Model the fold of this input.
Amino acid sequence: MHVEFYGKDAPNTVANFVKLAQEGFYNGLTWHRVVPNFVIQGGCPKGDGAGGPGYTIDCELNGENQYHDRGVLSMAHAGRNTGGSQFFICHNRDNTKHLDRNHTVFGRVTDGLDVLDQIRQGDLIEAIEIIEED
Done:
């Protein structure tokens, strides 16, 4: 999957995700939560949804693109301003409207969206590669 980040809307969240990806934090982790017609979620080093990077980041909810639609990347958290490394990708808009402006949207899948529907719980995130484009 290829992703476009929303750096203008969620600069700190994007910077955090990019930093973790470049450090290899996500390599080999699993998609620990897959709920059909809702989301796939990864980024937990414990593999059970209870882990993170050892720090938290604030939510960024005021940008223009804070709507959860198919292919949108958003930060998972255990309450406002408790995100860290866990993120999810939405399957559709029908079941995700309640997440708008409650979870920070920081990008969207622009290519390979068909892969989203093939991911199953326990599948590995082999690697996340950050490619800077002009």
User: Anything to note?
Assistant: The mean pLDDT is 95. The two ends are 19 Å apart (CA to CA). Strands lie at 2-5, 29-35, 39-42, 72-75, 87-90, 105-111, 124-125. Residues 27 and 127 are 4 Å apart (CA to CA).
